[in-house]
Each structure stands twice: as C-alpha cells, then as structure tokens.
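Hi there,

I know you've been waiting on this one. I reran it after we fixed the sequence typo, so this is the corrected version. Both the input and the resulting structure follow.
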Amino acid sequence: MSVELHHRAVVADTHNDLLMAVTARPPGRWASFFRERWLPQLREGGVNVQVLPVFIDDEYRPEGALRQTLRMIECAHTLAEGNPDAVRLCVDGAQIDEALGEEKIALVLALESAPGWTRTSSCWPPCTGWACGSPRSRTGAAPRWPTAAARTPPAAGSPRPGWRRSGRWSASA
C-alpha cells in the first residue's frame, strides 16, 4: 500500500544540497556529474520535484557571495540544458505541472538562509521568483497571497504555511 501511494503521489524533495556538490566540479562536468551521480538517486527515490537550494557557505561570504550565488544559478540552468530528457528548470507552478505531465523531474531554485529577508521585508514569507512563483520579479509589486494564512507572517518560532501553486499545487495553510 505505501509503495503504491508513493508512486501515485507527487514527491517533492525540498532540501538536497546536490547543487553545492555539483558546483564543486568544473563547469564542463556539471551536467554529466548530475546525470551520473544524482539523477539515478532521484529516479530511484521517486522524486518528481527537486528544490535546489542556493546556499552560500561561509568561505564565500561576504566578498564572494554574489559570485557563488550566480555560479549556482548558472549550474541549475546547465543541469537542465544538459539533461533535457529528464529534468526541467521551472519558475512557476504552471511549469512544474508541465514538467510533471512530461514525466520529467521539475527543478526549482530557492535561496536558502538569505539574511537580507526579515519580517519587515516587503515580501513575506521570504521568497524568490523561483521558489514561490512570485510576480515580483516581473512587476516589482508584492505578490498576492491566495489565503489569509499565507498573507499573515507566522509568529516567531512557528512553522510557515505551505506554499504551492496552480492545479494540484494550490495554497495550503
């Protein structure tokens, strides 16, 4: 029963530092290293959506943080371009749905531990155009949250509401 449920469900791995492991290799090896090392593991685990956290280790802060962030974003694009039959880099819920419909693994970039985001930031919960499908990157306006729970910042120490988009990816509290 549990194996059947696992295969019917959309499995999202929301924290895997594979992007850090891949960027530790020379850029010319990124796509093949992902294909040889990580893709079999994702398939074996039945992962349909893989969030790629962009995390910057202390060794790069502060002077190299931007350079390493851009390198990791470039790597995500390289993984998708080098493995178009298996994965798709997605920027919103509609693209995730399309990737799942094509039986590809949806890759989603997310910024991890971004210290510039606080409860007083103009976008709450902290998100990027990649991670939550926010229209901010296109319009400059704050995103419209679909539920009151998602519009209200959580109390300090409490878990944030889940965030999913379009179709089976709808908002949840």
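Quick highlight: The beta strands are 12-13, 49-54, 87-90, 105-111.

Best,
R. S.
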